[in-house]
Amino acid sequence: MRAKKGAARNRAKKRLFKKVEGFVGGRRRLLKSAKETLLRAGVFAFRDRRAKKRDFRKLFIIRLTAAAEMRGVRYSRLIHGLKLAGIKLDRKSLSELAIFDAETFDAIFALALAEIEKFDAALAARPKAMSA
């Protein structure tokens, strides 16, 4: 007698149909459509998990740009000052501080600004190279 995979196939189909609950029409009721839809949904989910990270990073940068410009410095100079000062807070933490704890952000900003000014002074003190 040949094995027809009956019980295992039924379990697999049951698992698949459990995953597609909430889909509409044949995407929920037909095996082939349900498989294709689930595969496509997985592809979108994978793609969009990465897109979500990009979108949030953009949001944090926009918030930091606004906070920096309110204090008279461009975003890029702020980030440069933070790197010079050795402050390793990420953009998410900094943007949260800028919104919810302005005093702490101002203290961090002052440290970064001091480092920027030191850097600019050192740059200005360097002798200029001779041009040909």
Q: Considering the protein shown, what is the CATH homologous superfamily? A: Ribosomal protein L20, C-terminal domain
Shape assignment: elongated
- The averaged pLDDT comes out at 94
Q: Write the CATH fold name.
A: c-terminal domain of poly(a) binding protein
Strand content: under 5%
As a percent range, the share of helical residues equals over 70%
Number of domains: 1
DSSP helical segment count: 6
Poorly predicted spans: none
What is the straight-line distance between the termini? 92 Å
Give the topology string: H per helix, E per strand.
Answer: HHHHHH
Largest sheet: none
Which CATH class is shown?
A: Mainly Alpha
Class computed from helices, strands and strand pairing: mainly alpha
So, CATH architecture? Answer: Orthogonal Bundle
**Count of extended strands:** 0
Q: Which value, in Å, is the CA radius of gyration?
A: 28 Å
How would you describe this structure to a colleague?
This protein has 132 residues and is an all-alpha fold. The protein has a single domain, classed as Ribosomal protein L20, C-terminal domain (c-terminal domain of poly(a) binding protein), CATH 1.10.1900.20. Helix content is 78%, strand content 0%. The protein is built from 6 helices and no strands. 11% of the residues are buried.
